Structure formats: C-alpha cells, structure tokens
Amino acid sequence: MKSRVFSATRASGRLHLGNYLGAVKGYLALQERSDLECVFMAVDLHTITTPYDAKTLPQASREIIIDYLAAGLDPERVVVTLQSLVSEHSELAFLFSSVVSIARMQHLPTFKDKVKQHPNHVTMALLNYPLLMAADILVYKAGLVPVGIDQEPHLEVAREIARKMNELYGMDFPEPQRFATRGEYVPSLAGAGKMSKSVEGSYINLTDDLATIKKRLAGAPTDSGRGETIPTQGGVANLLKFVELIQGADRRAEYEASYQGAGLRYGDLKNELAAAIFAELAPIQERRRTFEADPKKLEEIIQTGATKARAIASITLKEVKTKMGLG
Ligand code: ADP
Question: How far is the CA of 227 from the centre of ligand 1 (A)?
Fold first, then answer.
C-alpha cells in the first residue's frame, strides 16, 4: 500500500501567497512522487467554524479547487475534492471527540486567536476544529501533511489522537508529520503576524494583477531605509523575507548591504518585488482562466475526487466503528 498525504484549505477566500508558498508548493512537490497517494481538499466544513455566508460558500469552495488546479495539481494523479462530500470526516471527528478533553482544545493558541477575532461566535464547531482536522488526515491514515508552520499545534493534536486510538482500540493510525516548504511561514504585509486571508491588508492573492500587487505592497510599512542593524521584526523584516522567498537570498543580501550602506529605496524594492511576484503568478492566472471557463469539467473533477476519497475513508471509518464496538 502507498503512503498517503492529506492537506486542505478553508474555503473562506481566495488562495494567497502564504497558502501557495507554505502549502500548495508542498502539494506540487509530493504529487510528483509515485510512492505516495495524495488527497487535497477545500475544507468547507472548517469554513463554518467562523461566521460565513451559506449562499456564497459553494462558489468559494470551488474557487479553492480552481486555484489548486491552476497552481498545477493534476486530478489524474491526485484526489481533489470538497470535504463536505465525504461525510466520513465528520463522523470520525465525532468518534475522536470521545478521546479528547475539552481543556486540551480550549488551551490551543489557534483557538484562543479565533476567540479574540470572533468573540461573539465561539461555537462548538470552533472548539472542534482540530478534531475535524485530525479526522481529515487520519481517515486516510495519512502520514505526511504539507501545511504551513502555523498548523503545527493542530498536527500535534492529530498525533495525540492517533496514539490514543491506537492504544485504546488497537488502531494502526500513523502519527502524521508536517511536510515543510521553504515558505512555511509567510509574514503579513501589514508588518505583524502571518499572511492570512482573514486579516485585511495582510495578503496578496494568487489572482491579483500587477497593479493590485503594487497597491498591496505600497501599504506595507517601512522605515528610513538606513541603519546599522537589519530589522528582524515588522514591516521591513517582512519585506526582506518576501524578497528572499520570491527573488532569492542573494537579492536579499544586496538590499541588506544597501540598508547598512548608502540606504535602501523602498519604492524600487517594492516595484521589483511586485514584478517578480507577478511573474510567478501570471502562468497560474492563465491556467485559472481555462478552468473558470469550464464549470462542467470542474464539477466532474470534484465528484470523481469525492468518489475516490470515500472509497478510502469508508474503510477506515468501518474499522474504527468495529473496534469501538459500534454498529
Ligand atoms: P488562512 O490562515 O489564510 O485562512 P488556511 O488556514 O486556510 O489559511 O490555511 C491553508 C494552508 O495554508 C495551511 O496549510 C496553512 O498552514 C497554510 N498557510 C496559511 N497561511 C500561511 C502563511 N502565512 N505562511 C505559510 N503557510 C500558510
């Protein structure tokens, strides 16, 4: 049996550079490996853990799938579909909830962040987010998970659940490990925290044109452009990180030398960076148009993916239920 890979994105906005560099680039690398079976989803059930619009969710989920395909995922080689079409995920999450304490979930930093963001929407679904994520991964017995470093606390929960289920019920779940990319932490354009689609002003979308990228970069905070020590935090540190991720370490070193020497001109840096980002995104946007133009094909890919995913997920769920004495 091939080892499996699982990863996913919430359907709460377009994919941004953080998602692309931190996660999707990992999907693309793993798709090339013939020893692995990969499942990649738009996780629409995770979307309803924070306030959302039911009318626009179906299209938002499909936009994620289009972004995946445009970025280069090949539905002939990997499974691409929507989480809610594979109901085994939520059933397994409920079974997992019997081996996890409420306190463990409440103490997760990711939960606390979301509570701060949405103080009037602290639901059971939000508390259960990491359980559902553990189920997403373990329903495929996936050992490798290409995600950004922000997901490490959730992966730890998945590993704990795997161990518990193995101990208590004699399951053979792997302890899933993160597959890291060079862009495992893409900072926010706004100067603090990570790039996130739920934080306005923090992101560049994969669908942004050159003018939009320039506009977004223009909003990134800077300083006087000169100093003895290179900032390690804030707007300038983040801009340099972007240069490193998109243009390479050598270009970054040149800018650092200017900062410590004659001075750095942020207008020039931002223009050059915008052009480099757009050069990376343009072919993705070109492919996106072909998928946008063929919604029937897209639906076929999603439905075929769901059938393949259910074939695997239903076997795991049946095994868990039998071992737990259910049914
Ligand atoms: P967001 O935080 O923008 O809502 P998701 O939670 O849907 O993004 O994450 C989708 C994937 O993208 C996950 O694998 C996550 O680790 C990765 N990711 C999100 N933001 C970043 C970032 N700023 N840097 C690196 N990876 C990221």
Answer: 32
